[in-house]
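Thread title: Can someone regenerate the structure for this chain?

I was given the following input by a collaborator and told the matching structure tokens would be attached. They weren't. Posting the sequence so someone can regenerate them.
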Amino acid sequence: MEASGRRCLALALEAERVARDLNIPDSIALAPPNPALAWIAEHVSIPVIAQHVDDRVEGSTTGYNVASVLKTFNIKGSLVNHSEHRLTLKEIGSIVSMLRSHGMLSIVCVREPDEIDAIAGFEPDYIAIEPPELIGSGNAVSRSRPEVITGSIERVAGLGLRSRVICGAGIVDGRDASAAIRLGSRGVLVASGIVKASNWYERIREIVTGMLQHLAR
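Best answer:
Regenerated them for you:
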């Protein structure tokens, strides 16, 4: 609830300000709650993605999130199979294919490296490794379970996938994010680590700067 209602836009604008100040307009993406998707996309210039889309095409889809419809509101892609919204393999494959057909970004979430084998054939743009027990814990995956990140990267490379690996769960500061990049992650997913911070701009900037400083070395 810290980022509900009009505070959702306030948080989005702070993220956009960080992207502008650091001159990285496409490197910070927002995944707001469904009710705010079009509203946020209309007010910021940085990418906005959905937290979930359904395995449906436009038509008789009352109550569903449909990729082709989201695209008309300038939504750039979606998370798929988040730990809090798990899907079947059939649904994951169909959704990734659908997003790709509309030129939209797909980020498929997995809980452990061995789940990557099952989704390998779908080749999403990104695979996000997030151990569910660490989500919201403040105990960063990059520092408490680094083998999960390196194991996922090795698995993707061994399978010859074009997917890039990012990570999430427990990341709250620049050190956590920097550690993730050092391990080979191409980015991070952060929710409560930012939303619950007392100063959103400073927290987002700290996390991004931690990543950029490592990439510059």
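The chain has a mean pLDDT of 93.
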